[in-house]
Amino acid sequence: MKIFKSIVVLVISLLCLVSCKEKLELNAPYREIPSVYAVLDVSSNNHIIRINKIFLGEGDANLMAQVADSVNYPEGELKVTLIHSSSKVYLFKDSILQTEPGAFSTTQRVYVNHETLLTNGAYTLTIENLKTGNTFSSVTNALSPPNVYGYNPFVPLYYPVPPGSNPGTDNYIDYSGLNIKYSVKFTPNLSDQGPKIYSMTMRLHYYDSLGNGVNNYNYVDYPFNNLTNADVSTVGGIKFINYTFTGQDVFNAVGSELGRRQDPNFFLARKMYKIQYFVYASTQEYLDYLEYSKPSFSINQTKPIYSNFKENKAIGIFTFRYSVNVQKNIANPFISGFATNPSTCQYNFYNAALALPGCQ
Questions:
Q1: Looking at the whole model, is its pTM more than 0.70?
Q2: Does residue 207 contact residue 188 with C-beta atoms inside 8 Å?
Q3: What are phi and psi of 339, to 5 degrees?
Q4: Which distant-in-sequence residues (6+ apart) come within 8 Å of 25 by Cβ?
Q5: Which of 10, 85, 268, 337 would be a feasible disulfide site paired with 122, CB 3.0-4.6 Å?
Q6: 3-class SS string, 274-289
Q7: 3-state secondary structure of 56
Q8: Phi/psi zone of residue 352: left (φ > 0), alpha (ψ -120 to 50 degrees), beta?
Q9: Pick from 253, 273, 258, 147: which is nearest to 202 by CA?
């Protein structure tokens, strides 16, 4: 891992968006330093690299960030390649991505590839500016997937199940016990090339019944804190990454999110019908990146900027992650719980019988 200090930088990434309102003056010769976010998912064939220009100049940085030409390289200016230690070459092509409105331009140029990545060996990412001749490179090891035994997200029959149920036959999730401690667990890969950090999001799917006879499908995400290999617990001689929560925690998360949303036109009522679990595992580089990306609350606001690029010629990260999602049905008691729980009953949830008991 390498870091360097910068007095004025604007780092644009998918995870961390930092803006500065001060006027920026260029007092030194310009040096091209791109900002790169390249966290590639080895379990997917959809690989996206985001590369932005760091801009310096007089004026409000927030306004400059809204201009697509200020943050994006022109089409065809960058050549982006990924080379495996076996000499296999992956070529990334330009593409335009429309993002949600925020601090930066909603038009973002990204670089995409749709080939299968290998899960061993080493990779070299090279970014070449065909106009300036500058090159930026980074080398990192591939990421080995988690183990495939025990409570593992890659074996759907064993992941996850309510207490007392048969993992081989029961695919219905019931978190209706308000004070019961539920858990989602899986076995980590503790090898040198295995993951070092894990995250999980529970996604609860519901549909809104509309007066025109159409169902409007939506979902609520319940994210959990990151865990690392330091959080591994041992049960029955087996090591687990373990996420715990109560049933009321789930109802609270759904109610909190729905309180920020508006009902669609012609809304009558809504019903929960499906649950998904998204689990992500990544590398030590990514764990370091998150640490350096945390906001600074000290008096001295100048802090190191993360880079694992050769000679710090670019800032940002190149590494890998592994992801999986498992889908389950919801048991009737859990469905009905949303209709009467104090955190969710005001949002007109049907119970399992499509009745509206309301808050009690």
A1: yes
A2: no
A3: -75, -25
A4: 56, 58
A5: 85
A6: EEEEEEEEECHHHHHH
A7: coil
A8: alpha
A9: 253
Secondary structure class of 185 (helix, strand, coil): strand
d(C-alpha 241, C-alpha 130), whole Å: 45
Helix (H) or strand (E) holding 124: strand 122-129
Q: How far is CA 209 from CA 220, 238, 269, in A?
A: 16, 45, 5
Task: Specify whether the CB–CB gap between 287 and 228 falls below 8 A.
Answer: yes
- Tell me the pairing of strands 315-330 and 172-173: parallel
**239 Cα distance to chain centroid:** 25
84-to-3, 95, 120, 286, 318 alpha-carbon distances in Å: 25, 23, 9, 20, 14
Both tokens assigned to 82 = 């990924």
Q: What is the CA radius of gyration of the chain?
A: 23
Q: Which residues of the chain have pLDDT under 70?
A: 1-30, 55-70, 99-105, 146-171, 295-303
Residue 250, H or E segment: helix 247-258
Q: What is the pLDDT of residues 330-360, one digit of tens each?
A: 889 999 999 999 999 999 999 999 999 989 8
Q: Provide the angle, in degrees to the nearest 10, between the axes of the packed helices 247-258 and 332-340.
A: 50
178: tokens are 């308000």
